[in-house]
Amino acid sequence: MKKNEISLLIHHLETLYPDANCELVHRNPFELLIAVILSAQSTDKLVNEVTKDLFVKYPKPEDFLQLTQEELEHALRRIGLFRSKAKHILETCRILVKNYDSQVPNDYEALVSLPGVGRKTANVVMSTAFGVPAIAVDTHVDRLAHRLGLSKAANVLNTEKDLMKKLPKEKWTFSHHALILHGRRVCSARNPKCHICPMQEICTNFKKEGKVRTTKK
After folding, report:
1. b or e along 143-164 (b: 16 or more beta carbons within 10 Å of the residue's beta carbon)?
2. Which residues does 170 contact at the CB level (< 8 Å), separation at least 6?
């Protein structure tokens, strides 16, 4: 994708999703961290339903530590991988209480050292909670990066590096959220709605396969 096409991509995203932001409901960095851990292989909608009551009962790391793993598993049972997530959350809360005065560290390396926290989670927390430009590559962002022609990487780490090279740094956080919304609403994994997508002219995948997708399915 050429520079003028990158500019056009940003323009379309800003037009379609001017208020794009993290859709996980949270009041502070700690709640965001827990919500993002829970969001792996789950939907933001379901996570928000579960955390609505969870964060009222247990607003701080030390509150979570009042629970046994079995009790937390029960509270998270509607969410995929709830057993491993319960374990990671409790381990993370112990570290936050012991090493960080119950605060989420504003440091990328410290974040990825926490149980259950990978690059995507750390990038979401750094960008959304602390305002540090970052691109979190989830399944939607990875899919769109390849379809649009922003990356040919074989793994999400290299997709992230490609996006960081090609997108303006000041647009990293916005682009990440906007691409997620576009992936959910238009450029879905199956039967993408190419007929309503304004990015046809700059989309590598559409240029190759668009002829069979210009009519509504």
Report:
1. bbbbbbbbbebeebeebbebbe
2. 133
Q: State the Cα–Cα distance between residues 101 and 167, nearest whole angstrom.
A: 36
User: pLDDT digit string (tens) for 151-167?
Assistant: 999 999 999 999 999 99
Give the residue among 81, 29, 80, 26 at the shortest CA–CA distance from 54. 26
In this prediction the pTM is: 0.89
Catalytic: which of 85, 120, 162, 166?
120
Residue 138 among the catalytic residues: yes
pLDDT at 130 over 50: yes
Give the pLDDT of residue 3. 86
Q: Across all residues in the chain, what is the average pLDDT?
A: 93
Q: Considering the candidates 3, 52, 53, 138, report the single residue annotated as catalytic.
A: 138
Query: Could you give the C-alpha distances from 45 to 13, 171, 178, in angstroms and in order?
Result: 22, 25, 17
Both tokens of 53, joined, read 């009551």
Q: 15-44: per-residue pLDDT in tens?
A: 999 999 999 999 999 999 999 999 988 999
Question: Contact 88/116 with Cβ under 8 angstroms?
Answer: yes
Q: Which domains does the chain have, with CATH numbers?
A: 3-18+136-212 (1.10.1670.10), 29-130 (1.10.340.30)
